[in-house]
Amino acid sequence: MSEQPRTGRPFRSGFATVVGRPNVGKSTLVNALLGRKVSIVSDKVNTTRQALRGILHLPDAQVVFVDTPGLHKPRTLLGTRLNERAADALEGVDVALLVLDANAEIGRGDAFIASRLPTDSICVVNKVDRVDRSTLAAQLARAGVLGLGEYFPVSAVTGEGLAALTAAVVARLPPGPPYYPTEVVRDSPEAAFLAELVRERLLDRLEDELPHAVATRVTEWDWPRVRVEILVERDSQKGIVIGRGGSVLRAVGAAVREEFDPGMYLELFVKVDRDWQRRAEALDRLGL
Questions:
Q1: What is the C-alpha to C-alpha distance for residues 281 and 58, in angstroms, rounded to an integer?
Q2: pLDDT tens-digit map of 167-226
Q3: N- to C-terminal Cα separation, the chain
Q4: Statement: the pTM of the whole predicted model exceeds 0.85
Q5: Contact criterion met (CB below 8 Å) for 76 and 278
Q6: Residue 220: which domain range?
Q7: How many Cα atoms are found within 13 Å in the side-chain-facing hemisphere of 249?
Q8: Are residues 149 and 107 part of one domain?
Q9: β-strands 225-232, 122-126: how paired?
C-alpha cells in the first residue's frame, strides 16, 4: 500500500462511478480525468462492456473512477447483463456522476437513471465544445429538472471544466488511505486491456450493424507471443472482420502493436460462435 502524502490536509480516497446512456462520452470523460487511457473509446453504441476502474493519484487524494456500460433498453441477454453491470457499480460508491450530452435531448432514460441515484449526485453535461452558449444554458436548465446535487458543464475533448469537476469529486470523498499503489492506473489485467484494444481497433473499421456481434478475448499469453480470439455470430461476418486478403486484421494488428507494445507478436484469429450475445454460457465464458 502506498504511503499517504503529507500535505497538511487529511488524505481522501473513494470510488466515483460514472453512469449515463450510451454515447454520452463516459469513457472519453474518464480517460480525460485520468490523463491517460483506461477505457476504449468508439462512436459505436455500448462500446464499454465492463465496469472498468481507473485510478487518479493526487497529492492529497485518490479517486477510483468506475466507467460503466451505457444504460439502455436491452435487446439481447448481453444488453441485460450490461445494464446489470452498470447498476451494480453504483452499490456502495462514494460519488455518482450522471453524464449527459450537451447536444442531445434529455429524455425518459436520463430521468430513469437519475431517479436511481442519490440526490446529491453530480450531473456532468459533456461535449460543451459542440454547442454555443445559449444551447448550453438551455440544456443546463433542462438538466436541472433531474434534481441532482451539482451540475458541471465540461468537455472531455478540450478539458474545459475538468479541474472543477475533479475538485468537486474529491471534496465528496471520505478521509481514508489510498486503495492502490501510485504506480497502478487501471484495475484490470493486461490481457483484458489488450483484448479491449483489439476490439476498439476493429470498431474503427466495422459498419454500424456489426460491432455488437464482435467480442474479443486473449486465449494464449506466452510473451512476446499473444493470441487473441475474435468472436462473431455469423459466417458472413467472419469475412468482413478478416477483410480482403486479411487487410482488416493486418491493420488492426499493426495499430494494436503500436499502442500496446511494438515488440509483441500478436496473432488474431476469427471464430464463429453463433448467437453468443443471447447465450448465457457464451457470455460466462467471455466474462460478460
A1: 41
A2: 999 999 999 999 999 999 998 889 999 999 999 999 888 876 576 789 999 999 999 999
A3: 30
A4: yes
A5: yes
A6: 190-286
A7: 20
A8: yes
A9: unpaired
